């Protein structure tokens, strides 16, 4: 059964391809739920969204404003997505007016902020007047529907892999998405458990935005999402999207992911050219070595591969860093956007014999049978 995607226009003024525009970038790279028809960012108007992310042209135009987008698009999109993820998480008055205008045009509003638009009287009145929906992706379930940790993870008999990082907005979600797609291409039944708003917007069937939860329920909600994915899908492997970093002083989400997923292995994402933590210019980045030691001191699982972000690095530089890291840490290292996920998949096969047998069997099944007509 093919699910018809809704068309969507993403608002990302002055932030597309930057750290606070990670929601927009993630949706432009991959979305199972929406067909992205354009991005709003006046600082990059007239450019192609794919090229602005360092990839090939993808035909998604960047517009200067909402009016320009609606004039140039063949029809009004189904949805208007607020595609920025600022630290303060509040919209400006100008952004409020744009959202109201999008509602007037008949567009559903998709919001990933902690500021819930569905609890804003002006927004809800406008939504009712124009018969449109407001979807607050980060809005948690009702208290009676939340879960505490139960220990039922012990029944999971397939590898659970957490994709953690050394900082915020450094590529954890991208690596998780690309690995999930690559495994599926091989015929492996892989399921991604989302822990943030962007992956949920992209169409992840399991997960919850954990940074919007009461802390008592974070670990239990992660566990519950993994158990649901296991019971419903009977997968060969479960991937868990990471958030922030275990070492980050401002956020606790990685600790919840480590506890709630009890992973069998960890992939560590790192941006080598970044000197200071995203949004915190006075906090130096941790080293890969210190982050690995901290993760492995807290979790029984080991870091089994390193994935790199190539932000602010030339192709030659990233190749040199890959060689250096593999020599230093004795771990497969790659930039998945530029070089694919083969090294990670090989590492998974090396660590988990049952998964390795499945990978080999599925790969053989995909090979053509000579002599058949």
Automatic annotation (TrEMBL):
Domain D-glutamate N-acetyltransferase-like N-terminal: 43-140
Domain D-glutamate N-acetyltransferase-like C-terminal: 147-344
InterPro entries: DgcN-like (IPR011669), DgcN-like_C (IPR035086), DgcN-like_N (IPR035402), P-loop_NTPase (IPR027417)
Gene3D superfamilies in UniProt: NAD(P)-binding Rossmann-like Domain, P-loop containing nucleotide triphosphate hydrolases
Transmembrane segments: none
Full protein name: EBNA-1 nuclear protein
Classification of source organism: Bacteria, Bacillati, Cyanobacteriota, Cyanophyceae, Coleofasciculales
């Amino acid at each position: 059964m093919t699910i018809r995607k809704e068309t969507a226009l993403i608002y990302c003024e002055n932030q597309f391809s930057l750290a606070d525009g990670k929601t927009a970038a993630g949706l432009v790279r991959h979305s199972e739920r929406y067909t992205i028809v354009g991005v709003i960012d006046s600082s990059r108007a007239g450019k192609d969204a794919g090229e602005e992310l360092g990839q090939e042209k993808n035909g998604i135009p960047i517009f200067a404003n909402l009016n320009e987008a609606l004039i140039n698009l063949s029809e009004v999109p189904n949805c208007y997505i607020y595609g920025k993820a600022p630290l303060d998480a509040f919209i400006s008055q100008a952004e409020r007016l744009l959202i109201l205008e999008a509602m007037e045009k008949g567009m559903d509003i998709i919001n990933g902020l902690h500021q819930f638009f569905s609890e804003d009287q002006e927004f809800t009145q406008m939504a009712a007047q124009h018969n449109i929906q407001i979807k607050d992706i980060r809005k948690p379930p009702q208290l009676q529907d939340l879960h505490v940790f139960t220990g039922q993870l012990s029944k999971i008999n397939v590898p659970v892999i957490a994709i953690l990082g050394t900082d915020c907005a450094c590529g954890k979600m991208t690596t998780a998405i690309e690995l999930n797609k690559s495994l599926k291409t091989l015929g492996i039944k892989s399921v991604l458990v989302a822990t943030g708003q962007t992956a949920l917007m992209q169409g992840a069937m399991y997960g919850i935005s954990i940074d919007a939860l009461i802390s008592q329920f974070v670990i239990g909600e992660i566990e519950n999402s993994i158990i649901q994915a296991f019971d419903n899908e009977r997968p060969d492997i479960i991937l868990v999207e990471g958030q922030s970093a275990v070492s980050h002083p401002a956020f606790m989400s990685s600790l919840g992911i480590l506890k709630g997923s009890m992973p069998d292995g960890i992939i560590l994402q790192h941006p080598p050219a970044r000197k200071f933590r995203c949004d915190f210019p006075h906090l130096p980045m941790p080293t890969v070595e210190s982050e690995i030691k901290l993760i492995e001191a807290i979790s029984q699982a080991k870091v089994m591969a390193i994935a790199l972000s190539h932000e602010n690095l030339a192709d030659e530089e990233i190749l040199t860093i890959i060689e250096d890291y593999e020599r230093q840490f004795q771990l497969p290292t790659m930039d998945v956007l530029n070089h694919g996920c083969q090294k990670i998949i090989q590492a998974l096969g090396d660590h988990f014999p049952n998964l390795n047998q499945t990978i080999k069997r599925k790969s053989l099944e995909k090979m053509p049978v000579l002599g058949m007509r």
